[in-house]
Hints:
Elements (H helix, E strand, L loop, with lengths): L1 H13 L9 H8 L9 H6 L4 H22 L1 H12 L4 H8 L3 H17 L20 H11 L4 H13 L3 H14 L9 H11 L3 H14 L4 H13 L3 H14 L4 H13 L3 H13 L5 H12 L4 H14 L4 H10 L16
Helix pairs in contact: 1-4, 2-7, 4-5, 5-6, 8-9, 9-10, 10-11, 11-12, 12-13, 13-14, 13-15, 14-15, 15-16, 16-17, 17-18, 18-19
Amino acid sequence: xxxxxxxxxxxxxxxxxxxxxxxxxxxxxxxxxxxxxxxxxxxxxxxxxxxxxxxxxxxxxxxxxxxxxxxxxxxxxxxxxxxxxxxxxxxxxxxxxxxxxxxxxxxxxxxxxxxxxxxxxxxxxxxxxxxxxxxxxxxxxxxxxxxxxxxxxxxxxxxxxxxxxxxxxxxxxxxxxxxxxxxxxxxxxxxxxxxxxxxxxxxxxxxxxxxxxxxxxxxxxxxxxxxxxxxxxxxxxxxxxxxxxxxxxxxxxxxxxxxxxxxxxxxxxxxxxxxxxxxxxxxxxxxxxxxxxxxxxxxxxxxxxxxxxxxxxxxxxxxxxxxxxxxxxxxxxxxxxxxxxxxxxxxxxxx
Length: 351
């Protein structure tokens, strides 16, 4: 657990958007007594009750590392790592370099609870006394309860989601904007900012959508839908530097997705960076796209001024996929010298 905790903690130190963050569910788990004692934290990785508990184990481990550094200094962590290298048990080493395990666990539990209680202090976090077990009356009960608790996270979240589901786009803005203002660090596809971007898109408010998507991408390392949409909008506006910026951020997290490579290749090609565009399109081919002929055609165009042999090599498979591509036919004829005495046939332009 210490290794994983250090990894997630260091991610947050480099860029707060990278590592696991405190979420409303994690808040409830901490305050609900679901912290695993430090002495048994490895078991949280080896025998988690659910996938969520496994993910929570990564966050808790990083929180333990943060606590140890704040309370005992980075030297204590280094001393423990040296002991582990020499075969010492982690619990014995922690007690030697920090405090007795019982004291350490008590101090950490207080540290974690303080963190949880400090999440989005501008919002109330109490749950309604009823649940979905209330049956058909749940929606109406929740609407009444939400109206009586205008600054409650669960009330605002319910109101926003209900209005989005009913496609009441304009009305959905208010609760989402309140959530985004009071809980700006929320992440994920159901964050207030992510849903607000969808609302702006539905209303055709492109400038507002771009502004919100930019905030999402800045706050989240892995925001694939937001990144792809932001790239599409930037490409439509021919803002090629923005396409390159967002694509680079996306591909740093998920380098095996062909979609961003396509947009990145186009942006590099149009912004006068053909050398890098060639590398990007060759990567797309390695990912086995459904339309390789189009990628071969792009590569043939890029290679034509600098490497005629390679341009021809890509033109042939481009024509195999699209034999009526007249530009590719002209290029092939241009790249294939006719036998002595023959002339290159003219290919008429389509009317």
